[in-house]
């Protein structure tokens, strides 16, 4: 959310920086609410400011419901669908337009103080409002403006529905929507302060010069460069990490893609130091519990796997490269050697755990396998309950969710809950006859089945519901793991590996307006100062990603960052790898607290739709306690790269050779 219209204007000014210095540039603010926003844009771009007065045509009895708009040249734009739905006559429309025309004339006289409108013919015009809903007023403004033959029309607003932004994107030369809340309820919901702008404020702003206006001379790039701490290969100095992390029990380390080698390597190096030098109990990953448990057995010297490659072979589900890659293999082998020494010294070993919930069928099998060892009758009951899922294949949880959500099949919700409750109630008896570690594994698998079943059902409802359920599951698993690993007087300390989208605090993103939360937010809320979050960013290079879900791993080129994104700002420092602390107030934090675009590449990368697919607005300083930027990065190498990935190693300069 924006604090007020002035802050929204400063954000738009940064998003429009590429127009600064363009000759014949003019910024027009739609009166009244768009003028404070436009003044900040004009000041940022060092461009002249004027206003364009457009009046909304409100429905009879509900003037806030727009059925069209009236422009200053008398042009009327009407939403025909609304007019037909309300059964409005031509005379009713004329009456509404006449009333608004009188108010439009009054405002022109009041705001301009005798000045003629600025000529726009042959100029680049940036039209600014404080937000769009249906876009009727802006559409009238665009149509009126186009009649005066400007060189280019740009529309810029702080907030609008995605559908409206897309519609205007096809009507004007450039459409800049700072945020696109979903669901979109009202423009005012995007502002803390959305008090009505008065006529006096509009007159004052139009009379205040924007060119040469007294503005802060702070150079954000210079400030960030001065605050940056060199971090070779993305690893900050130990004393910086020590001061940042302190006594925190949970250190969440992110990544802005699931396929960047440098992120994985730096994260592994930081984690190794935390385990070996600061006594951390292990690492919990954005990975499925049973697959990670197999790795955990290996690093503890248990199980039957004879190498890290074999231990990682359980990660068969897409995207296999996310954990079956050369960097993770090296870390797993390091952790095994570290634990070998710990066992010789009779010290606790560090573990490797999974937090995710996609392993519904595999987790069912683990529950049944465990019960067959300790209580065969309970195993039969579990098998009968889980048989509810037999109608769908082991790898098709979505098919189950679709059928259960839309009445095409039986819901298994009650059965998985009964199994979980029985396993919890019989904990004491089962642990006496078996292994406490094995029971904990079975219990986490039962929880995974329960939450995965709910997740697949919610996949076909609002997207935020399934996202929140998944991150809540990860937070609950982390808490349960912390309790399990803690000893009297020695609380467990755990590193978390997950994407920035999970590690960062969702309250500092535009998704918070949708009700979306995140793992990092939940851990902060539950554990306060016992939590630290670190995000990674990059500007360019290559990445391992697929073009579609369940697709082949490809080595793709990462596009240069968008203008006014956090990635562009950090790239402009000219430093190859550095760390910025955001956990303490200073000028750099103030800069990073301002909303900017941030890029997120998951297991799928679609460069052709990058703005819509991979960017969202965040306040980076509120999202993380530290940010590590590695300016140019390379694709993560799968353990078994196929021909598609290898083909991607063709030099990026091909065929020009430049």
**What is the oligomeric state here?**
single chain
- The proportion of residues forming helix, as a percent range, comes to 40-55%
Major sheet strand order: 9-17-20-14-10-13-11-12
Main beta sheet: 8 strands, mixed
- Our Rg estimate from Cα atoms comes to 29 Å
Give me the number of helical elements: 27
Poorly predicted tracts of residues: 650-658
- In percent terms, what proportion of residues is strand? 15-25%
CATH superfamily of the largest domain: EreA-like (biosynthetic domain)
Note the overall shape.
elongated
GO biological process, one term: response to antibiotic
InterPro entries: Emycin_Estase, Hydrolase/PRTase-associated, PRTase-like, PRTase_dom
Domain Phosphoribosyltransferase: 8-162
Protein name: Phosphoribosyltransferase domain-containing protein
Question: What are its keywords?
Answer:
5-stranded parallel β-sheet; alpha/beta; 17% strand; Rossmann fold; 8-stranded mixed β-sheet; 3 domains; 658 residues; disordered C terminus; EreA/ChaN-like  fold; elongated
């Amino acid at each position: 959310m924006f604090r007020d219209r002035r802050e929204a204007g400063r954000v738009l000014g940064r998003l429009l920086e590429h127009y600064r210095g363009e000759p014949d540039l003019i910024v027009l603010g739609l009166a009244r609410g768009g003028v404070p926003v436009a003044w900040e844009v004009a000041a940022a771009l060092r461009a002249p400011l004027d206003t364009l007065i457009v009046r909304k045509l409100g429905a009879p009895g509900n003037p806030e419901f727009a059925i069209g708009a009236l422009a200053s040249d008398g042009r009327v734009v009407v939403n025909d669908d609304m007019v037909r739905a309300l059964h409005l006559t031509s005379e009713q429309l004329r009456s509404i337009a006449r009333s608004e025309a009188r108010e439009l004339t009054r405002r022109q006289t009041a705001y301009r103080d005798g000045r003629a409108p600025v000529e726009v013919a042959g100029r680049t015009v940036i039209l600014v409002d404080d937000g769009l809903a249906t876009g009727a007023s802006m559409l009238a403004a665009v149509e009126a403006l186009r009649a005066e033959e400007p060189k280019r029309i740009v529309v810029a607003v702080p907030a609008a529905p995605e559908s409206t932004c897309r519609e205007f994107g096809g009507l004007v030369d450039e459409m800049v929507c700072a945020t696109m809340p979903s669901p979109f309820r009202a423009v005012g919901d995007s502002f803390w302060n959305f008090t009505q702008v008065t006529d006096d404020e509009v007159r004052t702003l139009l009379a205040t010069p924007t060119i040469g206006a007294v503005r802060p001379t702070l150079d954000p790039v210079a400030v960030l460069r001065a605050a940056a701490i060199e971090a070779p290969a993305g690893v900050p100095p130990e004393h910086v990490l020590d001061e940042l992390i302190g006594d925190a029990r949970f250190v969440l380390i992110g990544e802005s893609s699931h396929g960047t080698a440098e992120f994985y390597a730096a994260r592994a190096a930081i984690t190794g130091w935390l385990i070996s030098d600061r006594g951390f109990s292990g690492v919990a990953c954005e990975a499925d519990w049973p697959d990670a448990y197999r790795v955990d057995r290996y690093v503890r010297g248990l199980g039957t796997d004879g190498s890290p490659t074999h231990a990682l072979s359980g990660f068969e589900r897409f995207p296999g490269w996310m954990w079956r890659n050369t960097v993770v293999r090296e870390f797993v082998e390091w952790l095994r050697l570290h634990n070998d020494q710990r066992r010789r010294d009779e010290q606790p070993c560090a573990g490797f755990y999974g937090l995710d919930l996609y392993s519904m069928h595999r987790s069912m099998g683990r529950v049944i396998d465990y019960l067959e060892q300790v209580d065969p009758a309970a195993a039969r009951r579990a098998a009968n309950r889980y048989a509810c899922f037999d109608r769908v294949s082991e790898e098709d949880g979505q098919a189950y969710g679709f059928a259960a959500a839309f009445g095409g099949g039986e819901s298994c919700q009650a059965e998985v809950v009964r199994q979980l409750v029985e396993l919890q109630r019989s904990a004491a008896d089962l642990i006496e006859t078996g292994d406490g570690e094995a029971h904990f594994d079975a219990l986490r698998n039962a929880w995974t089945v329960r939450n995965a079943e709910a997740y697949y059902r919610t996949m076909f409802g609002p997207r935020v519901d399934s996202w929140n359920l998944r991150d809540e599951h990860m937070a609950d698993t982390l808490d349960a793991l912390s309790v399990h690993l803690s000893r009297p007087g020695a609380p467990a300390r755990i590193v978390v590996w997950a994407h920035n989208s999970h590690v960062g605090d969702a309250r500092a993103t535009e998704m918070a307006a949708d009700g979306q939360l995140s793992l990092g937010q939940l851990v902060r809320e539950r554990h306060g100062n016992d939590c630290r979050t670190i995000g990674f960013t990059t500007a360019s290079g290559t990445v391992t990603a697929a073009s579609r879900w369940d697709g082949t791993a490809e080595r793709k080129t990462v596009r240069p960052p968008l203008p006014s994104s956090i990635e562009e700002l950090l790239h402009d420092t000219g430093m190859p790898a550095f760390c910025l602390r955001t956990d303490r107030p200073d000028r750099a934090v103030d800069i990073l607290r301002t909303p900017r675009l941030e890029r997120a590449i998951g297991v799928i990368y679609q460069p052709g739709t990058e703005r819509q697919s991979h960017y969202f607005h965040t306040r980076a300083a509120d999202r993380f306690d530290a940010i590590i930027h590695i300016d140019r990065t390379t694709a993560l190498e799968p353990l078994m790269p196929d021909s598609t990935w290898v083909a991607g190693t063709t030099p990026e300069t091909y065929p020009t050779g430049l």
